[in-house]
Amino acid sequence: MRQFLIKRLLVTIPTLLAISIIIFAILALAPGDPLGEFATNPAITPEVRENIRKSLGLDQPGYIRYVKWFAAFIRGDMGYSFNSRSPVAELLWQRLPTTLLIVGTAYILGLLIAFPLGIISAVKRYSATDQIITTIAFLGFSIPPFFTGLLFIIIFSVQLGWFPFIFNSTLQITDWQSFVAQVRQSIMPISVLALYHAAILMRFIRSAVLDELKQEYVTTALSKGLSKFAVIKNHVLRNALIPVVTLIALDIPAIFTGALVTEQVFRVPGIGALLIDSIYRSDTPVVMAITFIYAILIVLFNLIADVVYAVLDPRVKY
């Protein structure tokens, strides 16, 4: 295991380096000017704009800017936003709690819904229960989150008036009333994301369990007198979880980077909304930091998934 981890780390470092170069090159070649807002301001002369460009390091060649950025990132310095002039790390830390609250809660809720329903659907294959669960999962997977979000706003906000349709980013929890207000404004975005994640996970879990139920070891265990519940709990689930771990490991990084569409629909001030706004404004340091952190998390959780494989299935050797 130790040798495997060392080898993976040796592969991970050049992989992340290549990813950072690709992301930086794409952002450098992308259309848009970080100082475009200044161009329409008659009070700012071309000389002032050029001085601002020099202060931001935009007058230097791309490879020099990349080396400076990467060296600073390794030290924990993500640079400064071109628009707000605030440290990028500070902007991310401000948005992270909201993102974890909405997206993290939604994903956990989606897992809690998907696991039992996916297993029940597989065990009761072709039954009425399976048809209902599969239909719900198909609808949840097919309908995009932005449409579900708009539908929730029309029904629960406009017509019924149960929940606010715009997330209040200035709300601070100081008493019971403010806590209830926070819960009410979080219900709809969490529900939209939870239904979407549950639908995807449910279909995947059902397929994984069905593949294991067809194996000969299940028939052998049942013929020895073991109950179907015991076989599923002690044998089927352990093997079925192996491919599911990959899906979960690839989904977890999205919790930290936010839900781009849902945050826009409900005006949730999360990292996803920050990324969209930064792309519109050509705020390269913010976009670069968020996308590269996402790449790091993808690589890291892939490594964690490989380790979990060995725990779930002792036959896996590295």
Quick rundown:
This protein is mainly α and 318 residues long. It has helices spanning 2-29, 36-39, 46-55, 62-74, 88-123, 128-142, 145-159, 176-213, 216-223, 228-257, 260-265, 271-280, 284-312.
Characterization of the model:
There is one protein chain. This protein has 318 residues and is mostly helical. The chain folds into two domains: 2-74, no CATH class; 91-312, MetI-like fold (Orthogonal Bundle), CATH 1.10.3720.10. It is built from 13 helices and no strands. The protein has helices at residues 2-29, 36-39, 46-55, 62-74, 88-123, 128-142, 145-159, 176-213, 216-223, 228-257, 260-265, 271-280, 284-312. The chain is globular, with a radius of gyration of 24 Å. The mean pLDDT is 78.
* Helical residues, percent: over 70%
Contiguous uncertain segments of 5+ residues: none
The percentage of residues in β strands lies in under 5%
What is the name of the CATH topology of the largest domain? Answer: MetI-like fold
Cα-based radius of gyration, to the nearest Å: 24 Å
Give the CATH architecture of the largest domain: Orthogonal Bundle
The CATH class of the largest domain is identified as Mainly Alpha
State the helix count. 13
Name of the CATH homologous superfamily of the largest domain: MetI-like
Total individual domains: 2
